């Protein structure tokens, strides 16, 4: 491959950017314990006949959908994601955007389920309201947040993940990386065929 020149400003930006990702995804025993505890809650949900329900907005909803598919398909843990446009528009129309996910949880969740709530800022009202609904139903809850250490979602779960970054892309990438690690921990290996 021929040598490629890189604009020095681009290189400086990308060095800083990758450094931010490395710092955000750096793990310690606390993160390892949270990933292990996530695995335990997911396996408990499966054993109890429950499912893992993923929720998020925007990019976090995309991550939630990806995680639900991989957890169900690759790890054999029943999972779903509340991202159906018809469900969202119906419930948001009837109950308001801040409460649509809480009503989806009320209508669809059952004993033994585990809710995984993803919000980069940790301040999304519809996510916070859904967690409150899950708590009234005595569901296990896992939270993923970032940005500010004092965000309200950060301490609402049985297991809580926090990314110490103010970059949405770094926070979302780290959330997905940690949850993929938990899925692979359920599977018991990092490399396996896609089907």
UniProtKB/TrEMBL annotation:
Which PROSITE patterns does its entry note? SIS (PS51464)
Query: Which InterPro entries does the entry mention?
Result: GmhA/DiaA, SIS_dom, SIS_dom_sf, SIS_GmhA/DiaA_subfam
The residue ranges of the SIS domain are 42-193
Instruction: Tell me the PANTHER family matching this sequence.
Output: PHOSPHOHEPTOSE ISOMERASE, SEDOHEPTULOSE 7-PHOSPHATE ISOMERASE / DNAA INITIATOR-ASSOCIATING FACTOR FOR REPLICATION INITIATION
This chain belongs to the protein called: SIS domain-containing protein
């Amino acid at each position: 491959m021929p040598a490629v020149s890189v604009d020095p400003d681009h290189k400086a930006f990308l060095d800083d950017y990758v450094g931010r990702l490395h710092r955000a995804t750096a793990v310690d025993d606390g993160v390892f314990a949270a990933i292990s505890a996530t695995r335990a809650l997911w396996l408990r949900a499966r054993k109890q006949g429950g499912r893992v329900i993923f929720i998020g907005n925007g990019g976090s909803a995309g991550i939630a959908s990806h995680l639900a598919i991989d957890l169900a398909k690759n790890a054999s843990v029943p999972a779903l994601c509340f991202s159906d446009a018809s469900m969202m528009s119906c419930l948001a129309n009837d109950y308001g955007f801040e409460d649509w996910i809480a009503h989806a949880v009320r209508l669809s969740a059952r004993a033994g389920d585990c809710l995984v709530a993803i919000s980069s800022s940790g301040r999304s009202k519809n996510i916070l309201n859904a967690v409150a609904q899950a708590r009234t139903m005595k569901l296990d809850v896992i939270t993923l947040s970032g940005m500010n250490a004092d965000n309200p979602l950060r301490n609402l779960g049985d297991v809580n993940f926090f990314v110490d970054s103010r970059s949405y892309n770094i926070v979302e990438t780290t959330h997905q990386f940690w949850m993929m690690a938990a899925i692979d921990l359920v599977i018991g290996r990092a490399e396996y065929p896609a089907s």
